[in-house]
Give the backbone structure.
Amino acid sequence: MNLHGGQLVAKTLKAAGVEVVFTLCGGHILPIYDGCVDEGLRLIDLRHEQAAVHAADAWARCTGRPGVAVVTAGPGVTDSVTGVANAFRANSPILVIGGQAPSFQLGQGSLQEMDHVRLMWPITKWAGQVLQTERIPEMIEVALRHAMAGIPGPVFLEIPVDVLMNQVSEKSVRFPRMRMEPQELRPRPEAIRQALAVLAEAKRPVLIAGSNVRWSEAHRALARFVERLDLPTFTNGLGRGALPPDSPQLFTHARRYALRHVDVLILAGAPLDFRLNFGRELPAEAKIIQMDLDHTVIGQNRSANVGLVGDLRVIFELLIEAAVAEYPTVRFTAWRDQLREVEWEHQREWEPRLRSEATPIDPLRLCRELAEFVDAETIVIGDGGDIVSLAAKVLPVFWPGQWMDPGPFGCLGIGVPFAIAAQVAHPEKRVLVLFGDGSFGFNGFEFDTAVRFGLPIMSVVGNDAAWGQIRRPQIAVYGEERAVATRLRLARYDRVVEALGGYGEFIERPEEIAPALHRMKACGRPACLNVHIAEQPPSFGEKYF
């Protein structure tokens, strides 16, 4: 039996467990579509290649399995670059397959021809090309293996159109066994003992759980570890949801205080990057225990006293076992309770704004209404600046993957593509996007995609008619009279969604929020609540972050 290259692509993806391919059509990749029809792979076609890659990224975050995007040559690949870069910084395992001009015309100036592999190399874990049709399955397996090995990340595979169209005998093709499961790497036993010896001497330890807790599926072991020790814990990125909202060990508002007084900091898959001010505000005498999937991360920006390299789930299980045997009485209950008082103090400061009746609506009042609306069956996606930063401190996260945001690349525009993938991956759940009004403009037209595929995603726009997170420091540094290029209109994004076939409402008063949220939930269509919120004062960042 003869198969063309597109059929080989689809057959290999199906063997790898791929269920959905996110894409935007182009002539160079049509054979792959033909193969997907044969194999029963679901094609979700979006309106921009960046959005297709964002959707693949969200699929990986939702499922823990690689997401796949297929884009055409030239501008199809270049449009996808931002999505790939975002996945790269977020350690999200995706495979992007890019079309290419016919291999026998490379270098002659074919339509949409360019050096895609060299373009993608700096923002992927691996990038390659297939020039023989028989080798398509082999190269897809290599790409997926790279995506899932160690710290996960994006990979890129270019396949010229003639390679996709060529027919070969199935007997001449080697279909490799898919090997995407990462090895359970273990740190040295003496490193485990050293880490616990350092921790046992601590008075004010803190643990920060980052995204690699999610990729290691370590949340249950992490929860047992911190509960065993009464260890104060903060989360960021995909680490959110590692502990339930009511966990006595979970903190949100007291992070700055905790990090300024910490004597032992445990970094669990959380790099010392800008989110932790590169470690510069930590006390000079504080010790660091750093655990991660990749040894090159250990000691970045500040030397670690102990490095634990390996699968985080395994590391936590080893730590628990050793703690029970060697340090059965170690607890940090008094320090945890001290931090709880700090946490409550910050929450009390927020209380007037959380219940504000002011108009325009206080963004914290909006966040409180959303917190009461969200439950364990709602996936929340944050796509914006100030409003998302606030919501991250107010909205409950019940399980890993329930909260998704761009990650450390800070890429706006992920909202609707992430929501589309999340709704496809979890049709039994509700999906809610929280937008800033600036971020809506990037991929708002993907509501058309949600309508076409009958995906009832919900969204709320916090609309202050400004690029608020940029405008505030601009005014503080240069003065309001020189604040340019940061003001927007109070646009009717709800009507955009209505025009695309969805449901929309414009909200101007705080008492209107809750009823509108329930109408949106009940409408059964892609929906948008456009909420007029107050612009934040220039001192906002200093006071609340």
Notes: The longest strand covers residues 94-100. Confidence is low (pLDDT under 50) at residues 541-545.
